[in-house]
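Page 47, continued from p. 46.
Same chain as before, 283 aa.
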Amino acid sequence: MRDLYRVLQSHNIDFILLKGGAYIWSKNSASKGRLFSDVDIMVRKPSLGDAERVLVHSGWIGSTLDGYDQRYYRQWMHEIPPLQHLKRQTTLDLHHTIIPPVSQPDFPSEKLWQQAIAIEGMPGLFTLSNMDMILHSAAHLFHEGEFDQGLRDLSDLDLLIREYILAGALWEKLLARAAELRLEDSLYYALNYTQKILLTPVPDAILQKAAKQGKFGDLHNQIMDLLFLAVFVPNHVTCRARGAAMARFLLFIRSHWIKMPWYLLFPHLIRKGWLRLHGENSH
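Result:
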C-alpha cells in the first residue's frame, strides 16, 4: 500500500482507499481477520487517465480484454479494467466512482470526497467517512450479481453498523446521508438483511422509514426475501438451500438490470451467453 501511495502521490494524485483496505487502515471491527488479494481505490474522474498511466509505468499491467470488454468497463462501469502488479501479482481495482455511471449518470461522487477522512501523516490518502463506508459496502453488495462472499460482505455491514451507527444512535443521519447520495435502496437492503440474518439491532421504526424511503412495498419485499435469504449462506455445498441456484441466477440478471438500460443490457447478456456457451470468459 505504501508503494502505491508513493507512486500516486509523486504525481499529486489523491485517492481514497475502499472496502477491505480501508477497513484495515481504519482499524475498525470489519478489519479483524481480514484477508484479501486485491486493492480497491478511487480517484477523481479527471485524474483517472493520469493515475492509470502512472500505475502502468510503475509495473501495474492492464487486463488483456478484447475491445468490447474494454469498452464495457471504460464507458459503462465505475472502474477501469483490473490492473495487476508484475512482481507482487496483486490486483488493483481503480475506481472513479462507486456506482456504474450508466445506471446513475448523476451520482454525486464529489460528495464522497467532501466528507472523506484524511489519513494522518499521508497527505493525499483518504478513506470514506464512516457513514459513506457503510453505504458503499451496501451498494457494492446489493448492486453486484456475485454472492460467493455475500455472507462475509453482510457481516462487514453488521460490524460497521454496530460500530459506527448503533454506538452513537445515528440512524436518522444514516438515512439522511443515503437520501443525499441516492442510495436509499441499498441501505434498506443492508438494514433489512443484517437484521434478519445477523440480528443487527436495527430499530423497527428505522427499518420502516428505510423501506418507505426506498419506496418498497410488501410484495417486492417478499420476492426479494425469497432471493436474498437463499444466497446469504456459507459458501459450501452443504449449506445450499433448494432453489439457491435459481435465486443466484435471478439476482445476477437483476444486477445487470439495475446497472444498464435495456438497450445495452439485452445485447450484453446475449453476448455473455454466447461466449459461455462456447467456453469463453467475458465480463
